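Here is the promised in-class demo. Please do not try to memorize the tokens; focus on the logic of going from shape to residues.
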């Protein structure tokens, strides 16, 4: 690992720890040239499938696009950022579990909607209204009725 300060190639690991979820390793390193310390993180990198857009165009998977979708839907909603990160991780895990080299953007959108529905009813309706291209007030009514279907307890968002 190259030192970020002096660019020397010779650094040593002085401490390693697993993250709480054991999904990454935190390493403290020290440069043998300038003796400065820095932290690196190591995690498994799996190749995400290529995304096929509705117009047939293919593009690289982009985690930030999913994060942006979540954050727009959750704007001014009382949902902790950690919950969003966990939801994105679940979406990615589901995508990887499909074992496909390509995935339709529609499938990703449906996975995001499923996560939003569990997190916050208002955010779900916001996302669905854009994603499903609601054109009429009845489209909103139908989505709200789906969220409020009998036997389903109303959920309050929160930590």
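The designed amino acids, position by position:
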């Amino acid at each position: 690992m190259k030192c970020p300060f002096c660019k020397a190639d010779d650094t040593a690991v002085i401490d390693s720890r697993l993250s709480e979820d054991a999904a990454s390793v935190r390493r403290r390193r020290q440069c043998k040239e300038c003796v400065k310390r820095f932290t690196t993180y190591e995690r498994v990198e799996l190749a995400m499938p290529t995304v096929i857009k509705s117009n047939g165009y293919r593009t690289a998977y982009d985690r930030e696009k999913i994060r942006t979708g979540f954050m727009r839907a959750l704007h001014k909603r009382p949902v902790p950022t950690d919950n969003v990160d966990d939801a994105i991780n679940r979406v990615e895990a589901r995508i990887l579990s499909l074992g496909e080299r390509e995935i339709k953007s529609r499938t990703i959108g449906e996975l995001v909607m499923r996560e939003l529905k569990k997190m916050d009813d208002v955010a779900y309706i916001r996302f669905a209204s854009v994603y499903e291209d609601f054109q009429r007030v009845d489209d909103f009514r139908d989505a709200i009725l789906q969220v409020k279907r009998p036997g389903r307890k109303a959920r309050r968002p929160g930590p």
